[in-house]
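Hi support team,

I've been running sequence recovery on a batch of backbones for a student project. Most finish fine, but this one hangs at about 90% for roughly twenty minutes before it completes. I'm not sure whether the input is malformed or the queue is just slow. I've pasted the structure tokens below so you can try to reproduce it. Let me know if you need the job ID as well.

Thanks,
M.K.
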């Protein structure tokens, strides 16, 4: 139905020119006539053809006849539209001598009911623990023991590599280590003997020097002989100082020890490589991807993918990103309802178990930050699988017994928020604070000592004319 647009100049006349405002009855008659004419032009089928026929023959139905042909619902809608328009125009004209005209309003009865505030997010589903199994050993895979979907345990052998070259390399490394150890041992032995002889020579040279000093003082030997004894003592000291001494024994220098250490490191590496020729799982879980096969080299998987991907699917999680504008409402322990296409309309429960202490960029050129958050999904018999995207509705807060109104019923004047109620055909604004936000509906709590009573008539779409004390007419509910 098309709403008729009133032209104010057609209704309000200049009283100074001897004209007056149309009466309410005249206004309604005119608008009903226009509405019916519009409806008549919009109808189709046989009825439309019949009316056109009458129009051509000059037998246009009267207003009364057309009104009788309307359904009850159509009559109510027509009258509501006309009354609303008429009331508005008459109020603009000042109402003549009849006083203020009541503003038509739609209302609802204020009742207590449950309401929930939820936050909808989405993210990928994954296992609680996962690992990519790779190998840096250049050896051919000769055995694959598992396939996708197999459950595995920690240290279970997944695949076996060709050990021929690895065993040879290990033997070479073992020989190099053994040789380094032998060389050090022999050097330790020779150095110990050399150091022992050098200390004996030093003691002898020291004794000779002491005896010659006494003889020289008595004039029994020449100065040349005295100098020879001193030189022999200095040579003996230099010999002793040239040895590497460990715990009072001569020992091989640090280079021999370094050779042994390097050989030991290489030997350990070769042992580890041989051990890793049996590729094992590091966690309990399920093999979700196998990216190689028998005959391929373990370190040359296509596109640098892992040989195996394993996840613990016994406990699933959702990784979601929550806006910085909403994270203040989210807390560890809040519940969530999980849904996904794979569930065929069913849902599963979840719980927030972790919120990152730092945010990150949302991406896509946005300056907004998001906070990674983890939801643990309850139950092990769910149809959910890892690798899909699911939707989660996080329950922020709820109230089981709240006064609830549509958000369109709120009035915000910049300083406070109100709802408008009808009492004895007049408007009364009640200040409120907002509680649980249910998106379409919201919990309202009376403020400033005000009170609510169940059954109060709350105006659904208050406008600028619904001020305190304004006269109103409650329209019938459809």
């Amino acid at each position: 139905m098309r709403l008729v647009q009133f032209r104010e100049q057609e209704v309000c006349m200049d009283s100074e020119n001897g004209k007056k405002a149309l009466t309410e009855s005249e206004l309604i008659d005119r608008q009903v006539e226009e509405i019916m004419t519009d409806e008549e032009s919009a109808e189709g089928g046989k009825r439309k053809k019949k009316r056109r026929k009458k129009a051509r023959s000059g037998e246009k139905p009267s207003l009364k006849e057309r009104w009788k042909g309307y359904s009850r619902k159509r009559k109510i809608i027509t009258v509501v539209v006309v009354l609303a328009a008429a009331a508005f125009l008459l109020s603009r004209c000042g109402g003549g001598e009849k006083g203020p005209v009541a503003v038509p309003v739609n209302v609802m009865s204020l009742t207590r009911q449950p309401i929930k505030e939820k936050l909808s997010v989405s993210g990928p589903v994954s296992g609680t623990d996962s690992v990519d199994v790779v190998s840096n050993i250049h050896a051919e895979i000769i055995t694959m023991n598992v396939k996708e979907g197999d459950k595995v345990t920690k240290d279970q052998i997944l695949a076996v590599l060709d050990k021929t070259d690895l065993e040879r390399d290990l033997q070479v490394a073992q020989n190099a280590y053994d040789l380094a150890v032998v060389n050090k041992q022999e050097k330790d032995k020779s150095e110990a003997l050399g150091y022992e002889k050098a200390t004996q020579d030093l003691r002898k040279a020291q004794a000779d020097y002491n005896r010659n000093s006494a003889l020289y003082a008595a004039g029994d030997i020449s100065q040349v002989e005295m100098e020879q004894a001193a030189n022999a003592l200095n040579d003996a000291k230099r010999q002793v100082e040239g040895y590497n001494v460990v715990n009072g024994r001569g020992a091989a220098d640090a280079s021999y020890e370094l050779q042994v250490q390097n050989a030991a490191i290489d030997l350990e590496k070769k042992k580890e490589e041989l051990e890793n020729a049996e590729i094992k799982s590091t966690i309990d879980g399920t093999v979700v991807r196998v990216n190689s096969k028998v005959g391929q080299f373990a370190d040359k998987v296509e596109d640098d993918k892992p040989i195996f991907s394993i996840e613990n699917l016994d406990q699933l999680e959702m990784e979601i990103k929550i806006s910085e504008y909403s994270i203040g409402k989210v807390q560890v322990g809040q519940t969530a309802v999980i849904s996904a296409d794979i569930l065929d309309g069913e849902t599963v429960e979840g719980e927030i178990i972790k919120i990152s202490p730092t945010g990150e960029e949302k991406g896509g050129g946005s300056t907004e930050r998001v906070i990674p958050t983890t939801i643990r999904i309850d139950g092990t018999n769910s149809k959910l699988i890892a690798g899909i995207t699911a939707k989660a509705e996080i329950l922020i807060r709820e109230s089981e017994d709240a006064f609830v109104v549509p958000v369109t019923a709120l009035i915000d004047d910049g300083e406070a928020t109100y709802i408008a109620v009808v009492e004895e055909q007049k408007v009364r604004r009640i200040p409120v604070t907002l509680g649980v936000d249910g998106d379409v509906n919201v919990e309202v709590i009376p403020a400033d000592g005000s009170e609510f009573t169940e059954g109060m008539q709350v105006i659904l779409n208050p406008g600028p004319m619904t001020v305190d004390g304004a006269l109103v007419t409650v329209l019938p509910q459809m």
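--
Follow-up from support: It reproduced on our side and the slowdown came from queue contention, not your input. The first strand starts at residue 103 and ends at 105. No action needed from you.
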